[in-house]
Task: structure prediction
Amino acid sequence: MNLEQLEAIYHQPFFDLITQSREVYLAHWKRHEVQLCTLLSIKTGGCSEDCGYCSQSAHHKGEVEREKLLTADEVMPHALRAKANGSTRFCMGAAWRGVREGDGKFEQVLETVRQVNTLGLEVCVTLGSLTNREAQLLKEAGVTAYNHNIDTSPEFYPGIVSTHTFEDRLQTIKAVQDANMAVCCGGILGMGEDVRDRLRMLEVLCGFDPSPESVPINCLMAMPGTPLEDQEPIDIFDLVRMVATTRIAIPTAKVRLSAGRTRFSLEGQALAFYAGANSIFYGEKLLTASNPEENEDLDLLRKLDLVPQAPFATV
Result:
């Protein structure tokens, strides 16, 4: 879909929009399933990138302390707990610019992936920039999906990040696609962008071939010490409109409610599920940001008569 088409969808009357998105959702997905994903930071803080929203950047004065890369033995208990609690995707994130073949830290990550892969979980990683070679090695180790968000529109992006370009992001995504890994790619709402920027971001995602397997929709958690610390929280209806428009534009992608859910009521989250969201990050922490407690999420799913999705249901 192009920008003009996306604008027509997004700006239609609210109830018309969510009725349309619900119909698209029901045509492509089992109506009661939600994928539960667990996200673990395996290397925290000290990142050389200057992403304006991120408290892990070494360029900012955030409160996050630098931590070493976790070993496979340190990661496995988290993965086992995630599986026991119902998660079907285990995501591991590292705060650095990227990885290169032959580097000891990358070899350590590959071994961790191999071990987590033995658990029958979908394995997702977000490690920054890749070339085709690193992407292929991750695929061979057992990575199911690679997360690499484009964050916002190409036009707004330079105001958020200066240490790499929007095109750099697209090159990594192309390497992931060439390695036949699924692409997990979305953005962040509430960084000061306007609606057109959000829809331009979605237009870029619509142009991916193949389409993204999952689209995380994050709401900015304004972290102390970052350039965006004073941004106002996004309105719930703006989030639901974006969820609904994404569902219509990319029917076969999981639309994941990601960072920022703690800002919204249970009723607001229920509306987002109705509009087409069918995946959440599950667990008390997302990298460095807070997230609803596991029992709170399970209670909400029960109230909505929703059930966890089985692993590899659509991969």
